[in-house]
Amino acid sequence: MQCALVSRGFDLRDYYGKAFDKVADRIQMQSHPADDPAEVRMAVAWHPPADAFDRYPNLQAVCTIGAGADNVLACPSLRPGIDVVRVVDPAQAEMMSGFITWHVIWHQRRFASYLAQQRRSEWRRLPQRAARSVPVALLGYGQIGSRVAADLTQLGFPVLAWSRTPKSMPPGMRGFHGGDGLFAMLREAEVLVNLLPLTPETRGILNRDVFAALQPGGYLIQVGRGEHLAEADLLAALDSGQLAGASLDVFAREPLAGDHVFWQHPKIVLTPHDACDVSNDALVGTLLSTAEAIETGRRPPGAVDRVRGY
Ligand SMILES: NC(=O)c1ccc[n+]([C@@H]2O[C@H](COP(=O)([O-])OP(=O)(O)OC[C@H]3O[C@@H](n4cnc5c(N)ncnc54)[C@H](OP(=O)(O)O)[C@@H]3O)[C@@H](O)[C@H]2O)c1
Q1: Tens digit of pLDDT per residue, the chain (310 long)?
Q2: What is the CATH number of domain 2-89+278-295?
Q3: Using an 8 Å Cβ cutoff, are 144 and 196 in contact?
Q4: Is omega for the bond preceding 90 within 30 degrees of 0, making it cis?
């Protein structure tokens, strides 16, 4: 089967060449624009150019590189009926959980203050706080959120989680849903972790109302999508002390401009959209199952609900 590699700004082979080699006997990868577009029935894409899919009249499925499908769903040339398939990867959820746990503990154990003290050669112990006194709220309780919730619970943090639909939660966690549920959860939380997909409902959700509802001196860990965040509202919440700090991994414009105020902000820890990649093994599995589904006339496993947006 012919598969087009469609991305803007970088070559997918540089990151996932090994996975593409592993499936080469079943799926032939073609750089976009492919030489024989009528033969292309699937694509792998990351931030595809607006007209990318117009070229492929027989395209049936697009695999996104990553857990979020928003960048492909937003592409104007994605015709109705083309399935968008995301990689669901337990190894990625594990990586994300380690990343988030580090940032939760960075806040709980006051490491930003210790780093500042070290820079002043200042020996001063700060009051310690047990994990059980730092409630963590998760926006999103999907494949990644549920793993993060389980790991933080193991470490003793009280975990609250918000989803679109109600969930039955394991012992030690509490679930919330809907608009009222969101604010009921936030009022009890000190750390807020964003693990939502980007949809029309979630765009801009990290805003002044949400920050104001958290316990004073709260902390934001933003690993969803940059467009979830109202940047000016975050800066105001940091300036007022309502938020003690924020860890940011994703940004509305990536790469982040060199003169952006976030780079030098003393209360912000920043990483370049690097919380967790999908593993080659999971990508190989997704490519093969998508090709097989196309060949047998089935809907590919992992296809997102295009109306719901995730
Ligand atoms: N920074 C990075 O490197 C990185 C890496 C991977 C993923 N991500 C981000 O993490 C996101 C989540 O990934 P995932 O695999 O866990 O996604 P997922 O399995 O699809 O889970 C999404 C969760 O969000 C909830 N949700 C969606 N819309 C909602 C709404 N309007 N109100 C309340 N809850 C809502 C869903 O609720 P239901 O359970 O009720 O459906 C579900 O619990 C991705 O979309 C991406 O934005 C970032």
Answers
A1: 999 999 998 899 999 999 999 999 999 999 999 999 999 999 999 999 999 999 999 999 999 998 899 999 999 999 999 999 999 899 999 999 999 999 999 999 999 999 999 999 999 999 999 999 999 999 999 999 999 999 999 999 999 999 999 999 999 899 999 999 999 999 999 999 999 999 999 999 999 999 999 999 999 999 999 999 999 999 999 999 999 999 999 999 999 999 999 999 999 999 999 999 999 999 999 999 999 999 999 999 999 999 999 9
A2: 3.40.50.720
A3: no
A4: no
- Fold exhibited by the domain 90-270: Rossmann fold (3.40.50)
* AA letter at 184: A
Q: From the alpha carbon of 166, which atom of ligand 1 is closest?
A: 40
Q: How many Å apart are CA 36 and CA 32, to the nearest integer?
A: 10
225: annotated active-site residue: yes
Q: Is 196 a pocket residue for ligand 1 (Cβ < 6 Å)?
A: yes
Domain ranges of the chain: 2-89+278-295, 90-270
CA dist., res. 310 & res. 210, Å (int): 22
Active site residue 273: yes
**Whether the predicted model's global pTM rises above the 0.90 cut:** yes
Cβ 196 vs Cβ 70: under 8 Å: no
Q: Which position among 225, 253, 265, 308 bears the catalytic label?
A: 225
- Residues facing 175 on adjacent strands: 161
Q: Ligand 1, closest atom to CA 201?
A: 31
